[in-house]
Amino acid sequence: MEIINNTAKYALLILAPLILSACKLTVINEGGGTVTSASGTILCGSLCSASYNDSTTEMLTAVPDDGYRFTGWENGCTGTDTCSVTISRTSGNKSVKAVFQNDIPEYVAEMLTLPGSENCAPNTTPLYVEVKHLNNKSEVAGDSSRNSTVFDTNIFYWADAQNCTALGLGEAVFDEKVGGINNNSAILTHGLMFDPRVSMLRKWTTPSNANDLLESRLIPLEWAGSSSVGALPNREMTSLDINDTENAIYNVWDGNETSGSRQWLFWYDKSTDTYTEILEKTYSVTGHNFSSNFPLSINNSNIAVTASTSTTFIIRDGVVTQTVPSFYGRDINDNGLVVGNSCEVFDTDTSVKAEALPEMHTCFKINNQNDVLGYDINSGEVAIGNIDTGTSYLLNQISDVNVKEAIDLNDLGDILVNISGGPGDGNPTLEDPAILRRTNGAE
Fold this sequence. Notes:
Elements: H1 2-20, E1 23-29, E2 33-37, E3 43-44, E4 49-52, E5 56-64, E6 68-75, E7 83-87, E8 94-102, E9 107-111, E10 130-134, E11 140-143, E12 155-158, E13 166-169, E14 178-181, E15 187-189, E16 192-194, E17 201-204, E18 218-220, H2 227-230, E19 236-242, E20 248-253, E21 262-269, E22 274-282, E23 296-298, E24 303-308, E25 311-316, E26 319-325, E27 329-332, E28 337-340, E29 344-347, E30 352-355, E31 360-366, E32 371-376, E33 382-386, E34 391-394, H3 395-398, E35 402-409, E36 415-420, E37 432-438
């Protein structure tokens, strides 16, 4: 009997602290937001732990500060919804971590070393370089000035590893312009699609070896699809885009700035090598600026967007499936979101149009992180925003250079820009192309 009583005493001595003492819930917060509990016992920030004598189920809510977003719970909870934690005398102490991420973009500029640009100065015959498109591999496609001693043609392709070297497309497309570069390095031009790894290219570092002609694999885009288009004496492509499966969307203008001028929109399906006419428009205004009409964008789900005047057309696999009035769509991402000129966003899945970035105007690019390029509504300077957070920032305030012009945006959050005051030869008529590489926040 004495042994039993002693055992009970020892058990009481061991269990007494657990029975008599309160249990503690601790919230770990490394900054960027506040965590509160439904009972009001935790306000973290400042008060990050609480003790409980009775069994309690505590509901924790995380609220990010401006410029941050809540990315989720660790330890006791997962996801981004409210965290439910049960504390009792038998459960012991518990801890939960709230993780906030700084959403204010941060960038470091990498100057592009393109032949003829200021960054490869001195140049005896300067090249007027116009960078146009940036893919997720940091490859750039663009146009150069005609009759240059550096390039035979208007088209160039630049890869990250090159230094004052680029690939110029051969004379067959001397007058063409770049329409896009996809993530597999295929480039769409006004009339031809080519892969810079196997296409007709002239690759050189100086004009002396400019006859290094590589294998040709040019894929002509057709004017055809309509017999009336094929019969036109003057035809010109104005806008184009290409996705990762090399499907393309492009338009053709008849080349006449007179009343009765016409423009056609085409869809190219790479898998079947077929061309489909989607839309046709006749203009009654003389001298219309056709080159700025019909902005085009195609995503990797084969959904494309184009706009004419104040109406946007959503095109799926070459067929118009939605018409959005009073909306000028500029670009579509793989999430099916279309950003408009007024910085509204149209969701092609739900057909809902909503104001997304009220502090921005003239938005023209959206990536798969829902970052948007446009201009600040107050200062008019180039800005980057995110439609999930509703925040926007001036590029000149969050990068280490003076951004003159923003051109393209990839899915890593990197931005193709022209800057002022670059390390060139001091010629103010030349552009200083650069990539602003995002150093935080991109997934």
